[in-house]
Amino acid sequence: xxxxxxxxxxxxxxCFGELLHAGGKAGAFSVQVDTSSGQYNVLVDGNVxxxxxxxAAHINQKWLSSKTGGLVLKGSSSSKGQTPYLGPYSSIDITxxxxxxxxxxxxxxxxxxxxxxFDILFPLGANNTQSNDGVVYAFPSFSNTSSTLNYLTYTxxxxxxxxxxxxxxGGVIGGPVFLHNxxxxxxxxxxxxxxxxxxxxxPAPLGGDWAFGAQGxxxxxxxxxxxxxxxxxxxxxxxxxxxxxxxLLGVYGKKxxxxxxxxxxxxxxxxxxNGAYYYYLTEPGKNYEQTIVDVSTYLQSIDIxxxxxxxxxxxxPKGKNNGVTEWVVMPSIFPDGMKYVNDKIAVPYALHNRYFxxxxxxxHNYTMxxxxxxxxxxxEKLFLDIMGASKSWGNVLYEQxxxxxxxxxxxxxxxxxxxxxxxxxxxxxxxxxxDMTIQ
Length: 439
Known about the structure:
The strands form five sheets. A nine-stranded antiparallel sheet has the order 8-9-10-11-20-17-16-14-15. Strands 1-2-3-4-5-13-19-18 form an eight-stranded antiparallel sheet, with no helix packed on it. Helix content is 18%, strand content 36%. It is an alpha+beta fold.
């Protein structure tokens, strides 16, 4: 039977502290914790893969650290609990004082999965946290990774795969990390919550430690805020990536979608996205309505069985900074309306949207945060209304493009813990209520 145990460990003949095992197999995946200093190491198959760095938080415009001062260890304890899907865990909890601000760091070892969760809690919250140094707190952080390890991570606007050794690229456009050795023993590291503000970076004030935490623009951590980082061990990069993904789905009660669950991805379609011939281009002397109908007629004539149609950003009006003003079809594009086109081309549609312009009239009827470059909705009703209207046009998929632009070109999406989450949760809940999908 799987079990998690805490035993006193000796490393290189020196008593380091307590050792937590995950997955019920002693020595396979473990974390050493020195409860007298708060220091820790991550071990895989008995070897130190990650050496713990300093625990730190930027509070009241000042860095407070377990290494350089200001973050004072007050005590430690052990606890047990349970997490959905992951099941029962054993935990070492360390209490710190950042002046008069309590901070609790926890190391949770799961019995039924090769998983650890590093959790940091701010029971009373924290103010003036914005650091612009990559993160506003560092837990976990690592001062060194084994020289035998390679990494795979996904980063940048289109989540490109990056592989290498040494310093792992991150920041606000960084992603999950998969460390592996030559034998393909693999360790996945990612956020377990607060996905829209969780990052990993190498803050200069922390000596370049590889730090996981809330991104550096966050101004305030509300009372009871906690941030969790998941470490998941496996064999084989691809297999571990799949198991890590299944774990995240399981924790949040989600099921993995299959290809046949969405007609847009399961059937042959015609797209007018960037790179397509009729992307911001019509037939000579014709408007888009005539062009799209002609395309459909031609494809039928040569027996290409198109089962869905995607219409990109050329069909709706744009305002300041080329953002969308209203998600409605322009008469110059489809003079007879979107419904007319759908009657002519009677297939399911996927309709594109981009970031909202700062001069969008939607701001007068819905809750939105408006800044110089663009605006972000904070109102489920906006999505219910625009998606709902599009269903009468044959739309089954709402394609929300330019997410990175909304996120990186606005302050509110980055300096507030909840704004970005509400934006996407409202979008998702509206689509679910309307039985639509999102891409």
